[in-house]
Write a sequence for this structure.
């Protein structure tokens, strides 16, 4: 069977890292990278340190524009003559590939069915549309399957629960993460890690300024690897970081996970980091008023902070730090770290059989 994987951003490289070698081993596999993300510290560093083989083609789009991504994908997809196309998550690369799919190829959507029910987010539109265009929707959790089957009416046979590759990635690279030195000047358990890049948080100067003021109230050093979107907005709006923030360029996966495992708390608006925080047992505060990773909130591993100044972020963080032991003992709702093997087995057995019928 000919399988074609299409990804284009940092979190997709990280989550697909454990699956790519298995697809290479088992199938005639073409790997395309749209180049939606393109900076060295958003792409190359992950391919190198996670030992991911180079994509067969970098499409060089350097943009998240839907139309440009879709146009750039049409020919490479046709050239690969795939029986099935694999896409991940909710980025513009994901949905552009779903739209550009050649007739006859089947689309498989990984991390299907998660919903924030917030249509202000481009990612929510991308998830819904990709699930609609997909032939199989591989759900990361029972809740995601519930949304797909019970709320949206998809055939349950096309929506198996496989878990989340974020857990596979952590298990696979855990020894390297443990061996990674912690950044100079940090005391384990006495700092916070921050990431913030969501368009809703950083593209609007009033909102971004209010979040920075809230962060100034956190009573410990905050390590902040700054996403390129946020970097650009800070310059554009002429804003400066509060004194308790130590900013860095985006770091590689190993150093980032090292920071996360040694931090007392994580403050973020990232999707994948909410899942990772629960996986490693570090308390998480999410700088949003909703999340599509609701399992983490239901279990008490994550709390939402909507930026409302009547709630002090410093107090929210202090309360979350106390939950560490409880979180470390949780059973992971995103699976046992064997999602990649489940995906390959599904492709090789059920999906290949269904296609030959
Ligand atoms: C995208 C995804 C988001 C995901 C995030 C992961 C969409 C709609 N959004 O958001 O869901 O959480 O990736 O990080 O697909 N830039 C660089 N270098 C890079 C990448 C981006 O300088 O390697 C700059 C771009 O020029 C652009 C800005 O960052 O100005 C935003 O990039 P873009 O890909 O549009 O969206 P993200 O915020 O990265
Ligand atoms: N990450 C990283 N270096 C950083 C920040 C994040 O390696 O400086 C990793 C993090 O471990 C997670 C992924 O990037 O696996 C999350 O990516 P991002 O927040 O950009 O995207 P999202 O998950 O929100 O789509």
């Amino acid at each position: 069977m000919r399988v074609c994987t299409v990804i284009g951003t940092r979190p997709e490289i990280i989550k697909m890292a454990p699956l790519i070698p298995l697809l290479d081993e088992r199938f005639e596999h073409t790997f395309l990278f749209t180049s939606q993300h393109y900076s060295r510290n958003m792409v190359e560093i992950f391919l190198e340190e996670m030992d991911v083989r180079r994509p067969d083609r970098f499409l060089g789009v350097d943009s998240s524009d839907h139309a440009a991504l879709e146009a750039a994908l049409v020919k490479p997809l046709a050239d690969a003559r795939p029986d099935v196309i694999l896409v991940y998550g909710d980025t513009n690369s994901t949905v552009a590939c779903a739209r550009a799919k050649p007739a006859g190829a089947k689309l498989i959507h990984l991390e299907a069915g998660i919903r924030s029910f917030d249509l202000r987010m481009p990612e929510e539109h991308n998830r819904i549309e990709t699930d609609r265009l997909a032939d199989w929707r591989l759900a990361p959790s029972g809740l995601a399957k519930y949304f797909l089957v019970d709320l949206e009416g998809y055939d349950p046979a096309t929506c198996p629960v496989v878990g989340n590759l974020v857990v596979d990635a952590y298990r696979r690279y855990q020894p390297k993460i443990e061996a990674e030195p912690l950044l100079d000047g940090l005391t384990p358990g006495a700092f916070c890690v921050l990431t913030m890049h969501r368009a809703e948080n950083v593209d609007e100067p009033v909102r971004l300024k209010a979040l920075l003021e809230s962060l100034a109230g956190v009573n410990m050093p905050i390590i902040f690897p700054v996403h390129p979107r946020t970097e650009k907005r800070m310059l554009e709006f002429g804003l400066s970081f509060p004194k308790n923030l130590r900013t860095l360029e985006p770091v590689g996966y190993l150093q980032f996970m090292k920071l996360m495992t040694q931090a007392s708390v994580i403050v973020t608006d990232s999707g994948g980091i909410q899942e990772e925080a629960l996986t490693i047992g570090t308390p998480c505060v999410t700088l949003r008023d909703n999340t599509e990773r609701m399992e983490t909130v239901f279990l008490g591993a994550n709390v939402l902070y909507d930026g409302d100044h009547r709630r002090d972020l410093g107090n929210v963080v202090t309360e979350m730090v106390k939950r560490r032991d409880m979180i470390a003992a949780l059973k992971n709702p995103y699976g046992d770290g064997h999602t990649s093997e489940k995906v390959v087995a599904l492709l090789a057995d059920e999906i290949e059989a269904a296609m030959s019928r």
